[in-house]
Design goal:
Length: about 230
Amino acid sequence: MLGSISHSHDLVGLGGGSGSLDAAVFIDGNNLYHNAKSMGIQPSRIDFERLVQAVCSRFGASPKMVYYYNSVPDISDGSERYYKHQRFLSRLRSIKGFNVRTRKLQKQSNAGALAERMRDVRARGFCLGCLPLIERMCNECIGAVTKKEKGIDVAIATDMLNTCVIRDECDMCILISGDADFIPALDIVKSKGKDVASASVYSGYSHNLRQKHKYFVIGIRELDGVLKR
């Protein structure tokens, strides 16, 4: 599904497509990973070079440069997971025109989230017999500590502004993410005369993001064309 766009072009490769606009593409790897998994899609099967080409073609653009952002697990979380992720990032780095940016996963207390959930539960007026059970279920669900994908959003927004506005290296900014937190950065890029757009799988694709700028919903048919066999 495509929002506010009616044309489509096929690209023949990174930087060598038929689109009239030179695009800088920013991929929120964490967001795409979680949303794809929620649809039952194994993220490791995604061919990112083909994905970028397919998305750019929808907006009549050629990918001039691609930035991919991802959180990296610590080796203490499991060596198999760690080295598997490193191999994945190495494959991306080998693609011409791809720039990989990473941040470490950091531990963060969930005390704030738990306190907010408890306030909501207590405000609903559950009976005294039910309340302890519900509170225990919330505590088990949220847990005490989680891994926080920290700093990725800031890195994406910063690179977006540096590339598209300060260094003026492209005609168009394309965000592959469904996260509405990027709306302010996209607004700034657009205010400087650049074309902006976003693309994401339908799961987790912010309605506000789609309302604000051009968008492309990456559906099952499109995904089928970019998955490794």
